[in-house]
Design brief:
Blueprint lengths: L1 E6 L5 H14 L4 E5 L5 H11 L8 H25 L3 E5 L2 H11 L4 H12 L6 E6 L2 H15 L13 H17 L4 E5 L4 H20 L1
Parallel strand pairs: 1-3, 1-4, 2-3, 4-5
This protein binds thymidine-5'-phosphate.
Thymidine-5'-phosphate binds next to helix 4.
């Protein structure tokens, strides 16, 4: 079972994913946690280039191909082997991030992005996606607090420093994707307490696991 987590900056994807991983392990499942960009050794080299606010003048197309290089290698070296070994794989961001950030955000053609995503993944699609949704201003405030706490304001601020309008397009892009694929993408209200977010993610995961077992 392959599950991705998506959302705007500061939505709390990483926290929700860590809580779900812990809950699934307590129930006896083997779980692999990973993320994009940066879930494989190539991606760990690419992540600072992509997210560092000091990466100057990167074109939208060059940015796209760096994310896709990370994805192609990540699927090949980490995600597929983990799935084949029977793990539940939880991934912080996947193909939907490209559709909304490089599509709704940067203005690249969404149909072309879908095709190139397929090329990068070899057709691998998440079985389930949790879209953590919250107002943009709140997300950016949370991301700002996290960056200052982690001292990452310079090293990972390239997307955080985009305009409010950019992030609003991302949020709306995600909601449109969820409306197109309601059976895969579950919208989770990210303003709820973490325990409630976990309960929702856990019950959707268990339902999907039951569906597969039948
Ligand atoms: P995060 O891992 O802290 O969420 O940051 C990753 C950033 O990279 C985030 O701003 C979204 C962006 N991104 C894209 O623009 N396209 C992609 O395909 C992916 C995976 C991430």
């Amino acid at each position: 079972m392959f599950i991705s987590f998506e959302g705007i900056e500061g939505a709390g994807k990483s926290t929700a994913m860590a809580l779900l991983a812990e809950a699934l392990r307590l129930r006896g499942h083997d779980v692999v946690e990973t993320r994009e960009p940066g879930g494989c050794s190539l991606g760990r080299l690419l992540r600072p280039i992509l997210l560092d606010a000091r990466t100057d003048g990167l074109s939208s197309r060059a940015e796209l191909f760096l994310f896709l290089a990370d994805r192609a290698q990540h699927v090949h070296s980490q995600i597929r082997p983990a799935l084949e070994a029977g793990n539940i794989v939880l991934c912080d961001r996947f193909t939907d991030s490209t559709i909304v950030y490089q599509g709704a955000g940067r203005g690249l053609d969404p149909d072309a992005l879908r095709r190139i995503n397929l090329l990068a993944t070899g057709g691998l699609t998440p079985d389930l996606t949790f879209l953590l949704d919250l107002p943009v201003a709140l997300g950016l405030e949370r991301a700002g607090i996290r960056n200052r706490r982690e001292g990452t304001v310079i090293s990972e601020g390239r997307f955080d420093s985009e305009s409010l309008n950019f992030h609003e397009r991302i949020r709306q892009g995600y909601l449109a994707l969820a409306a197109e694929e309601p059976q895969r993408i579950a919208i989770i209200d990210a303003q709820q307490p973490a325990d409630d977010i976990l309960l929702q993610c856990l019950s959707a995961t268990e339902e999907a696991l039951r569906g597969r077992a039948e």
